[in-house]
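Reader question, answered in our methods column.
A reader sent in the components of a multi-part assembly and asked whether the whole thing could be modeled at once rather than chain by chain. We filled in our standard form and ran it. Here is what they sent:
COMPLEX SIZE: two components
ENTRIES:
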Amino acid sequence: MRHLYHFWVCPFSRKVRIVLGEKGLEFELTFEKYWERREDFLALNPAGQVPVMVEDGGLALSESTAISEYLDETYPDRPLIGFSAEDRAETRRLVAWFDLKFYQEVTINLVDEKLLKRFMGMGEPDSSAMRAGRQNIGHHLDYIGYLADSRTWLAGEDFGLADISAAAHLSCLDYLGDMPWDDYGPARDWYARVKSRPSFRALLADRIPGLPPPSHYDDLDF
Amino acid sequence: MRHLYHFWVCPFSRKVRIVLGEKGLEFELTFEKYWERREDFLALNPAGQVPVMVEDGGLALSESTAISEYLDETYPDRPLIGFSAEDRAETRRLVAWFDLKFYQEVTINLVDEKLLKRFMGMGEPDSSAMRAGRQNIGHHLDYIGYLADSRTWLAGEDFGLADISAAAHLSCLDYLGDMPWDDYGPARDWYARVKSRPSFRALLADRIPGLPPPSHYDDLDF
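And here is the structure of the entire assembly that came back:
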């Protein structure tokens, strides 16, 4: 059975879980405390990060975009990157937008401060970082709303990896109660459409011991 | 004519220049002070970063990996990502290694501190950041040496985007005189092979006004 080493509120792990769900592929999840740098885990991924996917034959793949591209090439039935070279460039531009820019400006400041530090025993969250994260989120939600209003999905007419990457980040923030949904209607409408996809169900069932999500987290009419 | 908006010692701009060179494609370079957030430039790339490539017909592409993948798909004669899905996953894993991990641990601490701050008028370099960058570089050069010794090129038997991405970062550090070549023979041997490729020549001819590189910068037998 295919195996995915993950961490619950890691947007990159969630991205691969959604891709696997969209492709209808079965897999087993293993929670990896990657910050403990377990030797057997470092042998799978010398970068020491989740997600790592191990195929049935033992092939170990790491880095969420490399894994997603691999799955899209290996199971091409429902392409998630796009049909033309131009479409794919737009998908990849937006995946990088969320995985680099949104991650640095928002996710790190909220998820890492509030949750990862607690797991890693690194002390209290830095309130100035959290304030920066909350300030930065607005223009990203405006951009999501703008894209979703001018196209069907973020990168164009088809649901794909740009939507998956963006939703993976937002779902982590939503779990922590950090999404200002009321002020961003178009982004919320787009997220509601993503949330209702079967591939998203497992994420909405996630529960971190001792840290329940807000009640709207798994509500499709939030 | 194809147009590339770039900054001289931006590893991501250099990566696309090398890809264009490997594909034998002509292009015009425009130096963009992207930190000034020129309105016409933001219309091309709302992320406000270089590189941005504008095709003859006006199609604007941004984000160095999205551009590189686009060029590799559109001009497939000499594939730079790899031949099989597994090879491509390995190339993409390593491209992310250099563009995310190496960038955060080394490039930002040295290139941004020593050079970008000066261009942007942001004051003196932070010496603790520079110290961290110099400390971090060693294990990356060991990793490059290990990969280059156990394979022909970094991701496998063929020269490709992993080599290009790694060399783009190292070439920026080399311009600033920050490469401890003497202590890392195998990485140096690999870099010498990359440096001798025709696609690298334009980078070695780069000169930033008022900031000449060390004499070994464009020497193929450094």
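What stands out: Chain A has two domains: 3-74, 85-201. The domain at 3-74 of chain A is CATH 3.40.30.10 (Glutaredoxin).
Send us your own complexes using the same form.
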